[in-house]
Amino acid sequence: MIEVEIKGLDEMIRKSAALPEALGRELRTFFDKSAFKVLEKAQRRFVQKGEAWGGNRPHVRTNRLRSSLTKGGLENIYEVDKASLPLWAKVGTNVNYALAVEMGARPHEIKPVQKKALHFFIGAREIFAKLVHHPGSPPHPYLSTGLEESLGDIDRYLAQAGENVRREWEK
Hints:
The chain is of the alpha+beta class.
């Protein structure tokens, strides 16, 4: 019979057992910080001057869309994978016109859904209409730009997570 002894095997097994928990914790922190940074940058886009938008700043009337870009906001989408080893985070908004702001909108008709007429104001003038021909709008990318502007931070967060896991392994 041949016997083989691997020095340090017990220690390696002990360290390996703790690794999934440390990795999961660091990945959750990474995704949480990254998602928050994207929302923060996206929200900041709405308060930037026209030049930052190429002279084409989006019209803001109620701040509803911008307000939805906060962690825990009413119309906010903010989720990190709940698995023990998280693989994704999701951010965004449930505001119904958000995609049209981000991507732009082609000309389209707007019709009343629950009432007989649409009701809105243009300046101080009150308007009732059965149909509005919307001319469309150019894209005002706030979320995709928020992601692009966050990439440097996201790289740093990932490097830090990797470093923390490495330190955990070396304990």
